[in-house]
Amino acid sequence: MTTHPADIEHMVTGTNALVRWLPTGGGLRDEDWAGRHRLMTRLLAASMVALLAFGALRAELGTNLTTWMVLLVLPCVVAAATMRGRRLPSIFVAFGFTVACAAFVALTHGQTEAHFTFFIAIAALALYRDWAPFGVFLIFTTAHHALFGVVDADLTYGHHSAQTHPLFWALVHGVAVLFAAAFQVVAWRLTEAEEKRAQDNLAESQAQLTVAFDETPVPMAIFNPDGRVLRTNSAYRKWMRLPDEPLRAGFLVTELPIEPAEPGSAVFDTLVRQEGSSVHLRQYRRKDNGELLWVEVHGTTLRDRDGGPSAIFVHCIDVTASRRHQEELQNQVRHDALTGLLSRSAFENDLAQLLSSRTRPVNVIYLDVDRFKSINDGAGHAAGDELLRGLATRLRATVPADALVARLGGDEFVVALAGGPEAGARVGHAILGAFAEPLELGDGHLQVSLSLGLAAGVTPEQADETVLSADTAMYAAKRAGGSRMQSFSDDMRVKVRERIAAEARLREALSGNLDETLPIWYQPIVATDTGRIVGAEALVRMRTPRGELLGPIQFIPAAEETGMIIPLGEHVLRLAVQHLLEWDEQLGYVSVNVSPRQLAEPDFVPMLAGLLSSHPTLDPARLVLEITETALLGSSLDVRERLETIKSLGVRIALDDFGTGYSSLTWLQSVPADVVKLDRSFVAGLSADAKKASIIQAVLWLASSLNMSVVAEGVEDPADWQALRAADCPSCQGYLFGKPMPAADFGKVLLPSRADEPVAVA
Questions:
Q1: What's the CA gap between 631 and 651, in Å, rounded?
Q2: Taking the mean position of all CA atoms in its chain, how far away is CA 351?
Q3: Which of 31, 266, 555, 678 is most buried, with most CB under 10 Å away?
């Protein structure tokens, strides 16, 4: 009979399919196999002991069978426990279980229930997942049933049919064991398939993690808790300047080319002890060139089932550049850009720390350059900046090395140093002596004089008060002629406390209901010839929580010094516009004082424009802004440009206190004013002073030629009023026509004045 090649190929294909379906065996890790083998060996030894005890109870058979069992099983136990490898030890275990099961069947005279041990053993041997012990057990089990069934059927089978036909029942038992084994094989095969899928998934995940770990641009590394480097990625090796290849086994953390910049700051020991993840910022030094690095170490400690550290995963972010940038920004914040000295905020912070760390007093010396504005305007701003830089250099070289030196702004400087009053006075006189020599300025030299104020503080709470005291003493030195030092006295302390109290009252007033805490009063401005009210000057008052009403002199200086004049001035402007709209045809205009600090504020003109645009029915010419001549003289602002911008809105400008400065006629030419307000010093006693009358006549003529109106302030004597009428002065203002009064009272006064009736003269 000839076999067709196709049939052979079909048979081979089927065989291969069957082989592929069957479990391959093995696959257990060494530690897993060793654990299972120990279990099986111990079970075999326990079975032998149990059978010895059971045999002792079956005296008629126990002695001989026990002897044979010991001779056969005990060597299997010894071999399984001592032999190396996997295959032979597991075969000895399988053979031992065959002998033990056969002995148990014999001791029970072949009872059917005793045969169950074979099924138990086949399931136990499947734990090896190895065909050798599994197959050996099947072969020896079948041989036992066939051989012993023929030799001694009574001890093998417990029923007559099996004793009569032992080979048939040996086959039956063998098939039954094979079926039991088949289910174990199926379970075994399914387990292998599941493990393979799990292994494939794990391999895929590991491949993805490997790519993510190796290819990420962030330096990453994995360490053993004992300090060995287990794994690094390319970015880590590049950052560490290591060869771009896996590190040798046993490479230690201490062998890395960087080390902590400070002893005891290593983060590795901290990561070993910590739970979970953490972030640590540390400074390191490269061993090869000493370069300092700031590194942000993100660490995660992995724990084993016993809670001990098993691995440490870190990724490192080099923040050296950002740290240096941050330090540069902090340095810029802490230091004055022009002179390099401490800034105001840095000085205030360092002064508080100096006071808190000392038991001795701390001296504060406040410095101001005499007539700096004249120098700055005469030589130019560039020369002024050069002067300030030269002054800072000489000042820094004169004071002790541990002293705090700061520029507070403009030409104001401050020095703080520890020691008694005599130490502060000694340094102050040294500063005055140092500036006895001229400063180099460009190609020439410039003689500079300073006014100094000296005060001392003890506690951090006195820091602001001490600086304010030194500032007050400095102004006293300046009023005394400058180029000297003045120490703070108790008399000055009263003034300082009054300034502090005024500031506190003003802050409280600005935080309340402004209409109640900061009401606006109005003083009439009248036509000189008729006495009719043509305008009014808005004057702010402060109402304290106790109901006391304070005049401007008691809080306006504090508002100017602290900058609170900005919100205060905006409040006065808004309320004045509201009253203008309320009085409408009854009042021609309202005049509002504007401080130079308000005028210099970049947001002042936009605020004014917004206020006017929110009231489109208001004629902007009815609003007059009063600017003092002396204040303009002290301003570094381009006054004319700012005032021209205001005038473009339609608002009129008044030059207040005209005649009190030394360049009044110059201001009339350079400032685009609409109104000139003659200071009360020219008006008082006018009727009896021919010189004053001549001056006023000249000012009136000049103002008329420049298309300006004139208001004479401080009119209190009827004779002076008549003199102004005779000189054709357009408008007057003073107690003769009315004192400042609340808005409600002023509104009542307006009614008869618009009926062409003159205001009642006080």
A1: 20
A2: 25
A3: 678
